[in-house]
Amino acid sequence: MDQAIASHKATRGSQWWRSGVIYQIYPRSFADSNGDGIGDLKGIEQRLDSLEKLGIDAVWLSPFYLSPQKDGGYDVADYCDVDPLFGTIKDFDSMLEKAHSLGIRVMIDLVPNHTSDQHQWFQKALKSSPGSPEREFYHFKDGLGENGELPPNNWVSMFGGPAWTRVKEKDGSLGQWYVHLFDSSQPDLNWSNEKVQEAFEEILKFWLDRGVDGFRVDQPHAMAKAEGLPDHPYVAEAGAGFIEGRENPPMWFQDEVHPIFRRWREILESYEGDRAMCGEAYVYPLSLMAKWVRPDEFHQTFNFRFLDAGWDPSKLFDAINESFEAFDGVGAPSTWVLNNHDVMRHRSRFGGNYGRATASDGVGPNQPQPDNELGLKIAKGATLFMLGLPGASYIYQGEELGLPEHTTLENKFRQDPTFARTGGQRVGRDGCRVPLPWDKTSSSIGFSETGKSWLPQPESYGLLARSVQEKDESSTLSFYRQALSLRKELALGEGSFDWVPGHLGPDSLGYENSGVQVIYNFGQEDIDLGSAEVLISSEPIVGGVLEKNQCVWLRNA
Ligand code: NOJ
Ligand code: CA
Q1: Which of 28, 74, 114 to mutate to test the pocket of ligand 1 (most atoms within 8 A of CB)?
Q2: pLDDT for residue 51 is more than 90
Q3: Whose CA is nearest to atom 4 of ligand 1?
Q4: Of the listed 109, 134, 218, 405, which one is catalytic?
Q5: Among 157, 182, 418, which is best to mutate for testing ligand 1, by the most ligand atoms less than 8 A from CB?
Q6: Domains of the chain, earliest start first
Q7: CA separation for the pair 535, 513 (Å, rounded)
Q8: Long-range contacts of range 66-69, CB-CB < 8 Å, 24 or more positions apart?
Q9: 380 close to 539: Cβ distance less than 8 angstroms
């Protein structure tokens, strides 16, 4: 715990994105309206009422664009069209209108680092000659070696295997290579090309004109690449990634991205209403990330420092201090997040103490299984701890139901490219993407009328169906609703932050937000709550004490 102790002043009456709770919808797994086993936009529209009841402020939709679906739609073939799997552009408009009528804002995913190989830009590039303007949309390079048979540099893919694929030229001969930081079906765009920049400005306007409230931006820290695409200096240690404190490799957080974000911010601000962009930026330390959320760049970025803290009191303490220090320094809200479609669900993650690597790689039937009871207890406590923090909070579909990860999914169902690209060594992220259970009595637990489901649901999801939990005041769903409603009533999202002396870890962490004390017990000893009024607790308080792995919101008597 070597950080300075943070303090944060309230930001009452500010824009929604500074304090809102944003709920991530993974469309293919949310709700299926036409029985094909794949969630769709109509399904979302039909179920929006339940999100209003939950008490969230906005939704963020993962991609629903035209796509061959090699990476769950993060391989976009047309940024301005809806994939027939999910419906039509009319369905989108109708869903948006319904959301707005319920007071729910809608953010959509923008995937600017790469396209699908089926995108017309890439198809045109393939048919054009080396050095042509069409190839300049992407990073095409001649290979090394006598006949260009070796990849142009040592980069590897985030999903495993090489980051380069060689193409056949028009005459059928083996030709240039293109770079893809993810799957070979996801070629990286060349962001130093003004044509690419202009094309994306039009894409932003297309969706802003339709009325979206903002964008979640995929992999923005990979968009700019260092001139000449030099080797990754320590690829053997870091693989595709980077190591904090070492020089940043040529594909991660290059300074050339900033003018692009400034232009996007100008575009958003030229529209009425508070439109906002959240960057999925892995940029460390957060003092560097703060440059990304200066007043004329992103409105906010995901705080993966908090997610990566793995519910370790010392890491959390540091993460929170670092967050307020960095983001307050530039006037941006901190965000808080524990789950998304790329990491193991927090109930299972905390029930097995899985490290960050396992969390993003998923867990399969042959690996140690989590303790789901312990996991739920910690997860509820962690959520309550998170929701009391001022700033914007992100929650991921299904966490309000206490869903565990599907950790026994059979390999034959796996679709995440990570699984195939690593020869099964990493099982990938399918386990957190399993379709939601809505209604216990119907097939595929209410996900789809026909009982179809693109990934099988584990048996445990039956009892966790929303319809079951809605009737039960002691359910995880009721707990989330109560916490979200109190957060709103007490305006904690716009509130203040000060650590509470005596709760600076490692046995407990406690902070005060606008007169409300939030305490989480990490230690073996019970904590006496004295005469303070309990506003909400993650587990029932017995005998006036906070037990290990419980969290409570208190008001001093
Ligand atoms: C981050 C997304 O969240 C993830 O699902 C995707 O695979 C990669 N970016 C590549 O787009
Ligand atoms: Ca469907």
Answers
A1: 74
A2: yes
A3: 342
A4: 218
A5: 182
A6: 7-113+268-480 (3.20.20.80), 120-179 (3.90.400.10), 498-555 (2.60.40)
A7: 13
A8: 67/116, 67/118, 68/116, 68/118, 68/185
A9: yes
What are the backbone angles phi and psi of residue 335, rounded to the nearest 5°? Answer: -110, 165
User: Does ligand 1 have an atom closer than 6 angstroms to the CB of 342?
Assistant: yes
Q: Which atom of ligand 1 is nearest to the CA of 113?
A: 11
- Give dist(CA 547, CA 553) in Å, integer: 14
Q: Is the pTM of this model over 0.85?
A: yes
pLDDT of residue 13: 87
Give the active site residue among 45, 280, 361, 494.
280
Decide if 470 is catalytic: no
Task: Please state, rounded to an integer, the average pLDDT across all residues of the chain.
Answer: 96
**What DSSP designation does 109 have?**
E
DSSP 8-state secondary structure symbol assigned to residue 400: G
Tokens describing residue 244: 């904090």
- Tens digits of per-residue pLDDT, 321-357? 999 999 999 999 999 999 999 999 999 999 998 887 7
Kind of pairing between the strands at 497-504 and 516-521? unpaired
467 Cα–ligand 2 center, Å: 21
Indicate whether residue 416 lines ligand 1 (CB < 6 A).
no
Is 400 annotated in the active site? no
* 49 alpha carbon – ligand 2 mean position (Å): 19
The confidence band for 441, taking pLDDT boundaries of 50, 70 and 90, is confident
pLDDT tens string 358-390: 788 999 999 999 999 999 999 999 999 999 999
Phi and psi for 107 in degrees, rounded to 5? -105, 145
Tokens of 395: 């929650």
Is 186 within 8 Å of 137 (Cβ atoms)?
no
Q: Any idea which ligand is nearest the CA of 86?
A: 2
The pLDDT of 161-165, averaged and rounded, is 97
**CB 302, CB 281: distance < 8 Å:** yes
Q: How far is the CA of 453 from the centre of ligand 2 (A)?
A: 9
Specify which residues 498 forms β-bridges with.
7, 512
